[in-house]
Amino acid sequence: MKDINFIISIIDSTLRMAAPLIFAAIGGVFSERSGVANIGIEGMMIMGAFFSVLGTYYTGSTIAGILFAILAGAATSALLAFLSIHLKSDQIIVGTAINIFAAAFTSFMIFKVFKIGGQTEIVKGISFNVPKVIANIPILGKFVGGLNWFIIAAFILVVVANFIIFKTPLGLRIRAVGEKPIAADTMGISVYKIRYLCVIISGALAGIGGSCLTLGMTPIFKEGMVSGRGFIALAALIFGNWKPYPTMIACIIFALGNALQINAQGLAWHIPNELYAMFPYILTMLALAGFVGKTVAPAADGVPYEKGQR
């Protein structure tokens, strides 16, 4: 029974850790499928994590907190879109600048709003009430009790995103703009509008991913709490070949590394905790080293488009 409980704990932890990665990575799929490399996902997650706490703190509503996170992520991505699409700035540099800005801005806002440094006050998190009928079922009750609404929404998102990208006219336009923007423009598709839409969707989803870390796990914002998850999400979408389902699987694999770290004491291995902490990043590097040469990015990914060019 102890072994079963440990396995369930690992699975629950993996799913909780995978949810923010899935939101951020699927957002990245939309952006990069349209031809805009979104290196700023990390910064958008930071903004989403902070503003979800801020919105909940001022309103007392977790729903409002999530809306704040969506707006913060969307606004940050709109800046990326304007600089990258309209001004033709280098997308890698712009994304990196957004990451630096987000970390510094949220640090400043913590002190400005909460009058302390390093972290905000604790707010109300998203509740997930399991019916007693299910909670009393051995094994199943423990498993379901470890889930939350973000996990359920993340897996629904993957299905919806895959349908939109591969089964709808909008998805066809997105893929066309990311592969052959000149041809798409010739066919009357607005390259700029599609790219703006996808980048803003990317930021909104990354914002929700940030709120997963706060309202869905620990209802408090701390400096550095995103801890490179935006870059892991980028690695996941590359690993997943810019497709929702393989990207989701990659997120789960990377999240397993975090789950092992959290539940390290339940393992009989005599390994320093620091090595467990390295697991998700080691997995990221191995995935990129082993698969980046075998994946094919959208042809126009990261390439600015000048309307009318031939």
UniProtKB/TrEMBL annotation:
The keyword Lipoprotein does not apply. Pfam families: BPD_transp_2 (PF02653). CDD domains: TM_PBP1_transp_TpRbsC_like (cd06580). The keyword Transmembrane applies. The chain crosses the membrane at residues 6-29, 36-57, 63-85, 92-111, 147-166, 196-218, 275-297. It comes from the Bacteria. It is a multi-pass membrane protein. This is ABC transporter permease. Keywords: Cell membrane, Membrane, Transmembrane, Transmembrane helix. It comes from Clostridium neuense. It is found in: Cell membrane. Its main location: membrane.
